[in-house]
Design goal:
Oligomer: single chain
Shape: globular
Number of domains: 2
Largest sheet: 8 strands, mixed
Number of helices: 15
Strand order of the largest sheet: 5-2-1-6-7-8-11-12
CATH topology of the largest domain: Rossmann fold
CATH superfamily of the largest domain: NAD(P)-binding Rossmann-like Domain
Helix content: 40-55%
CATH class of the largest domain: Alpha Beta
Length: about 350
């Protein structure tokens, strides 16, 4: 029997995943959470642009769960809304799932544990997306790199039928790996997001612009080191998913020659990731709240909980909150302030 999939949150990543699967003939039901996106999809379908192809595909779209047909039930729900909304979304979604239905969390940051508390860990799959995507207009989605995805369940050290079935679906959109150390995957992605999303958000720039300056390079290395130090302190082995950790882990004792080598490595990110516009920056540009509390803010809290410090991550979280309140502007001066702290 064909799996009945509910996709909730049809922003940049959700739109891309839905578009790719619909294009291959899979039947999905979309809940956008945004009337403008719903209207655009109903009128013109989902328009997807990737390095490989461009296409438009029709879709069944609703704005809210309450609009779904009353008898609808789904085998899995893919949660692709912002991290701050996922817990309420998961709670509202459970009645729409079959008895052993799966919730798949695609959020940046560590939210899977909150969903597991609601549904039970056996019904929750964590997914980590490693590619950049943008919603250029309601219903229009662009992916700049091929990228990859990782899926897994904490404590599960085998490829279960549930994970194998999900992998087969996600492979349509990007090469997907079932990880037996999903905690390590999520912490590796957290380190990357803290350095990339946090810095791009406070600077108001794409990654390529941030890492062309010495201050941006030093801030990247400092934020990244704090993240990996915290993971190691918790006994977590961060997996290599985006970049080679050793190339970007700059020890505090490094001399200037070694620092110059690491700065050059960060500057080299421009070639592959220069055009990346993280979701936090996209949110700020739209006047919306970001996921930074679940990224840099989360990391700073986890470090503090075990008597450590992550001052750069803590300061980025504070800066973003000030930007959201209209008390600070985005700009390179924020990177300069972080650089002074480094």
């Amino acid at each position: 029997m064909t799996e009945r999939i509910l996709v909730e949150g049809v922003g940049s990543v959700g739109g891309l995943l839905a578009g790719e699967l619909l294009h291959q003939g899979h039947a999905l039901t979309l809940v956008t959470g945004n009337p403008a996106i719903t209207a655009a999809i109903r009128a013109q379908g989902l328009a997807v642009a990737t390095p490989e192809r461009r296409f438009t595909v029709a879709a069944e779209a609703y704005t809210a769960l309450e609009e779904l047909p009353s008898g609808a039930r789904f085998d899995s729900a893919w949660l692709l809304m912002m991290a701050g909304a996922v817990q309420d979304a998961a709670r509202a979604t459970l009645p729409w799932l079959v008895a052993d239905g799966t919730l798949v969390s695609f959020q940046n940051g560590m939210v899977g544990e909150h969903i597991a508390a609601l549904a039970g860990a056996a019904r929750v799959v964590n997914a980590s997306v490693v590619f950049g995507a943008v919603m250029t207009a309601p219903g229009c989605y662009t992916r700049n790199t091929r990228g990859a995805m990782f899926i897994g369940q904490p404590g599960v050290h085998e490829v279960t039928p549930r994970l194998a079935a999900l992998k087969a679906l996600l492979d349509i959109a990007a090469p997907t790996t079932v990880s037996t150390n999903i905690e390590g995957v999520l912490w590796a992605k957290l380190a990357w997001n803290c350095a990339v999303s946090g810095l791009c958000a406070v600077a108001g720039m794409a990654l390529g612009e941030v890492v062309t300056t010495r201050g941006g390079q030093d801030a990247f290395l400092g934020v990244y080191r704090e993240a990996l130090d915290t993971a190691h302190a918790y006994g977590i082995h961060a997996e290599r998913i985006v970049i080679d950790h050793e190339r970007f882990y700059l020890p505090p004792s490094a001399d200037e020659v070694k620092r110059a080598e690491f700065r050059a490595a960060v500057a080299g990110l421009v070639e592959r990731y220069g055009q990346v516009l993280p979701s936090a920056l996209q949110s700020l540009r739209r006047g919306r709240r970001t996921e930074i509390p679940f990224l840099n803010g989360y990391l700073a809290q986890k470090a503090e909980a075990i008597g450590r410090a992550a001052p750069l991550n803590a300061r980025i979280a504070e800066m973003v909150e000030e930007i959201e309140r209209g008390q600070r502007a985005m700009g390179v001066m924020n990177i300069e302030a972080l650089d002074a702290a480094v």
